[in-house]
Specification:
The chain is of the alpha+beta class. The protein contains 17 helices and 8 strands. The strands form 2 sheets. The chain has a 6-stranded antiparallel β-sheet. The chain has a two-stranded antiparallel ribbon with strand order 1-2.
Length: about 475
């Protein structure tokens, strides 16, 4: 027994000696490193230099000064350019010249009051409650009214961007704390606008929707495979309405084989999944000929589908959301997000466009707003057909996906509202972009190769598959909270 123990001990010692000579890989990132890197990728946090491997040096283990902290706050808000391009007046006599733009911006916008009537004390180390006060003021909360500056952690704990780790006994406060608080504050609710800070940054074009998704800020987001949840349930347990056929192998959205052009001489056949639920008894298709751009036109279609009383035109919302754009300038996905936020459209964003992910949302009674490349959709010159692209334009485009079906050729098609009619109609006067059918594999490729995300616009009413009647058993579903 004793010899066995000695042998075991010898083995452990030898193993430890061997391991000592094995080159060690970089240690796993701490939550502070992760927060700093995400902020850096968003352009909201800088390092103090560059490490030997080319990565930014955030110097997270050092206590920041008040000069540094107010600078980091201004960058967090995406206001560095505004701060540095203006001249600011402050009563402070002790501000370093390099920090004057940041202190000036913060003072002018009520983010700091200094340490006295004439001093900012910029070279002093900032305390936890001081930085929390900076952030809370940036979120619109008023010290002395909404919180006490010397116990700011009480409100930050309540808002969720701290969790009890700071109090009156906190003696050490480092740049790592600034990074962690700053990143978590992006998801904190602003007082006036009642949306998370990151939404405000999207709305002000500081960051994009894609940036927010990549940083993990957008809620109800699934990386890769979509379970079909719309955000109103925790489980994918809603009933399905027909249309369970799988696309054939050559129609796999991840496949590489080219699709043959569909047979356009036959009318579509097969079930239309969730068609009755997605349909409306009123008109909600709009031609971008009127709005001048596919982005605001698709957004207005989605809003009208959600609310029959929505009366804003694409031209009006374009002027409201992007007043600085020319009449020919495209909308971006961040503009769609800004529109949805402004008008309270219940929605979410998912990554990974596949036929199955789109079908799952349609089965749940939701519609999809896609940003895609029309060049992937086969051009069809048959003026009587409802299949394929009916116009010459090939490039970035927004449209609505509202149903799916199997064509007479056995292939899966998505039914879309394509706003690019420009007055082009069938013989019966119907605009050609209305109820158009695009081959599923082509539509998926058109999105994956342009912007591999999709907007889910949630149906404000539930439905029962047995009745196929959108007006029966109407139930109002709760709004999805935007906060993570």
């Amino acid at each position: 027994m004793k010899k066995t123990m000695l042998k075991g001990l010898s083995f452990i010692i030898v193993l430890a000696m061997c391991l000592a000579f094995i080159p060690m890989t970089a240690s796993a990132q701490t939550p502070y490193d992760e927060a700093a890197n995400k902020l850096f990728d968003l352009g909201l946090f800088y390092g103090v230099g560059t490490n030997a491997d080319g990565t930014p040096d955030f110097d997270l283990d050092r206590a920041p000064t008040r000069h540094e902290a107010v600078t980091m706050l201004v960058r967090l808000l995406g206001q560095e350019q505004e701060a540095t391009q203006a001249h600011w007046e402050t009563p402070f006599t002790d501000v370093a010249s390099w920090a004057e733009p940041y202190v000036g911006y913060a003072y002018a916008n009520g983010l700091t009051a200094g340490t006295s009537d004439t001093t900012f004390s910029g070279n002093d180390a900032i305390t936890a409650t001081q930085y929390l006060t900076f952030v809370l003021r940036a979120l619109g909360y008023v010290s002395g009214e909404d919180f006490a500056w010397d116990s700011a952690w009480e409100l930050s704990d309540e808002l969720g961007f701290t969790a009890g780790q700071y109090n009156e006994t906190t003696a050490v406060f480092l740049r790592s704390d600034v990074a962690s608080i700053s990143f978590d504050a992006l998801s904190a609710i602003m007082k006036e606008h009642e949306v998370p800070l990151y939404i405000e940054l999207i709305y002000n074009y500081v960051i994009t929707v894609s940036d927010a998704i990549d940083a993990g800020l957008i809620p109800d987001f699934i990386d890769g495979e979509d379970t079909g949840e719309s955000g109103t349930d925790g489980e994918n347990n809603r009933p399905q309405i027909g249309g369970d056929e799988e696309p054939d192998a050559e129609n796999d959205p991840n496949g590489e084989s080219a699709e043959p052009e569909p047979d356009d001489n036959q009318a579509p056949t097969g079930p239309k999944t969730a068609y009755d639920t997605i349909a409306r008894s009123y008109e909600w298709y709009f031609d971008q000929l009127i709005g001048g751009d596919c982005g605001p036109t698709a957004a207005v279609m989605a809003a009208k589908w959600v609310d029959s009383s929505f009366s804003r035109t694409a031209q009006e919302v374009r002027r409201e959301i992007t007043p600085g754009y020319s009449t020919t300038e495209w909308w971006y996905t961040s503009d769609i997000e800004s529109f949805f936020i402004k008008y309270g459209i219940d929605h979410s964003i998912r990554k990974g466009v596949t036929s199955e992910s789109l079908k799952a949302q349609l089965d749940n009674g939701n519609i999809i707003l896609l940003c895609m490349d029309t060049s992937f959709i086969t051009r069809n010159y048959d003026s009587t057909s409802h299949f394929g692209r009916f116009y010459d334009f090939a490039g970035g485009h927004f449209l609505i996906v509202k149903g799916y079906m199997t064509g007479s050729d056995g292939k899966l098609y998505f039914e879309v509202y394509d706003p690019n009619s420009f007055g082009d109609t069938y013989s019966d006067g119907t605009l050609k972009g209305k109820d158009r059918y695009y081959l599923a594999s082509e539509l998926v490729s058109s999105a994956v190769n342009w912007w591999d995300y999709y907007f889910i616009v949630n149906n404000p009413v539930s439905f029962t598959p047995s009745s196929h009647n959108p007006n029966s058993n109407i139930l109002y579903l709760p709004q999805v909270e935007l906060a993570a």
